[in-house]
């Protein structure tokens, strides 16, 4: 009954073919949900929302007159990915993080990638999150990115494409884990019947990666999670992950540096800290080196870091790999460092800083998606085909004023997925954020956060822009 009137959109639909037939790997889901009435499904959704609210599964929207704390909307129609399809994604994601780690190591040491003219020097040096202070600093295991969330989209023509990498402090994994816990309560028998791979290994894998960064010693490594505090938009996730790993969650005021060693203040006195999983941006980490007015960080942290007495995950300066201008060169990094062809291609990207590409952007603003190089959360964007003439002209001025800060891409029709909206199942655009953990072994959590644009026709899936999420079922 639930799918009786479902009409796949023009875009590639993950669950249904254009003919209206469901795809083979969705059979059990369609059969199980097909017997549910819209009223019953609405009741399931309400129950889950209430459960999330009671558990504090929320996020914060800044500068919102309606209030800040919100539930991340959750849709109980799961996304299903067959095992062979996931194997290809996994291989491509591991290839990508390996190349990004080699790129980061290179630019903070010999800079061969610049000398060999793979990427212009100016592009690296003008990246908002490039940190010259890290040049020559030895980092544990030569690893810069331990936790990465890479955003993927799929369209009819090109299949899966990488939309962007998140190498600084990728968020959202707590919703992935909570979504799975919720779905197990709703459809307990389906998981075993379909052979869905578990995702609750994430916390164990993450702790293993963190402990692997500590220097060999006679004591068990002490890891902490450094948060900006309870008013941060992702504080729920910070406390959730710290609890799951069994480590302390701390703020900057809870740590002190003495003799280039980091200590945590406890009721028993000072306790040495070996590894910090930091959820604070570089700018606020250490007021001695970065922003002098920061009250969130730890004075002297970078001295301890340079001395090799504490490890940070992710390393300072990784944000240069998140820059949307640098993103264009990642396929070149894969060829340069690994001598391989990219398994997962980028979206075609034009740089406003390049004269020829600037001309193309200006002539086709009404057909392109324009993004600021270092914005996230769906901010700083122009979706040309869905914008007014005034919005387009305003953006034209911004691009001319600061060409280095903008890239443009063709508007990709993100794949759609059956989603319960307005008391019925309708197609809504989605993306996928898998989480990659790079330690002694690089592993991809078999799932990911499927984000969904709940507004009809919208391609902006970010929670701050009205998006929601789904559980992602990867099959054996």
TrEMBL record:
Lineage top rank: taxon: Bacteria
Residue ranges constituting the Circularly permuted ATP-grasp type domain according to the UniProt record: 78-453
Protein name from the UniProt record: Circularly permuted ATP-grasp type 2 domain-containing protein
Organism: Roseibacillus persicicus
């Amino acid at each position: 009954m639930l799918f009786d009137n479902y009409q796949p959109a023009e875009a590639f639909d993950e669950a249904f073919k254009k003919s209206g037939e469901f795809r083979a790997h969705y059979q059990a889901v369609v059969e199980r949900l097909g017997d549910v009435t819209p009223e019953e499904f609405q009741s399931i959704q309400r129950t889950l929302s209430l459960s999330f609210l009671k558990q504090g599964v929320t996020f914060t929207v800044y500068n919102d007159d309606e209030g800040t704390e919100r539930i991340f909307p959750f849709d109980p129609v799961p996304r299903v990915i067959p095992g062979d399809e996931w194997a290809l994604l996994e291989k491509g994601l591991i290839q990508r993080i390996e190349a990004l780690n080699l790129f980061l190591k290179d630019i903070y040491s010999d800079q061969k990638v610049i000398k060999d003219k793979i990427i212009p020097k100016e592009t690296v040096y003008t990246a908002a999150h490039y940190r010259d202070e890290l040049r020559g600093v030895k980092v544990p295991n030569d690893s810069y990115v331990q936790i990465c969330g890479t955003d993927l989209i799929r369209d009819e023509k090109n299949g899966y494409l990488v939309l962007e990498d998140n190498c600084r402090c990728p968020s959202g994994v707590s919703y992935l884990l909570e979504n799975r816990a919720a779905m197990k309560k709703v459809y307990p028998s389906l998981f075993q019947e379909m052979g869905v791979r578990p995702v609750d290994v994430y916390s164990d894998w993450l702790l293993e990666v963190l402990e692997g960064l500590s220097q060999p010693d006679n004591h068990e490594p002490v890891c902490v999670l450094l948060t900006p505090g309870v008013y941060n938009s992702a504080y729920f996730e910070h406390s959730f992950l710290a609890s799951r790993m069994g480590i302390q969650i701390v703020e900057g005021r809870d740590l002190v540096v003495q003799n280039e060693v980091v200590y945590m203040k406890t009721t028993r006195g000072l306790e040495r800290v070996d590894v910090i999983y930091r959820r604070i941006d570089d700018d606020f980490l250490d007021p001695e080196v970065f922003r002098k007015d920061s009250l969130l960080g730890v004075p002297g942290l970078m001295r301890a870091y340079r001395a090799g007495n504490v490890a940070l995950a992710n390393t300072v300066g990784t944000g240069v790999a998140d820059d949307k201008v640098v993103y264009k060169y990642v396929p070149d990094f894969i060829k340069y460092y690994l001598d391989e062809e990219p398994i997962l291609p980028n979206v075609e990207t034009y740089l406003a800083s390049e004269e020829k590409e600037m001309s193309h952007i200006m002539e086709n603003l009404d057909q392109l998606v324009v993004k600021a190089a270092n914005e996230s959360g769906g901010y700083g964007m122009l979706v040309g085909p869905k914008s007014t003439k005034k919005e387009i002209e305003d953006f034209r001025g911004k691009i001319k004023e600061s060409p280095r800060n903008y890239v443009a891409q063709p508007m990709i029709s993100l794949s759609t997925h059956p989603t319960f909206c307005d008391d019925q199942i309708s197609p809504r655009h989605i993306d996928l954020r898998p989480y990659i953990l790079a330690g002694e072994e690089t592993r991809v959590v078999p799932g990911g956060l499927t984000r969904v644009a709940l507004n009809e026709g919208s391609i902006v899936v970010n929670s701050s822009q009205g998006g929601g999420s789904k559980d992602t079922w990867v099959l054996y």
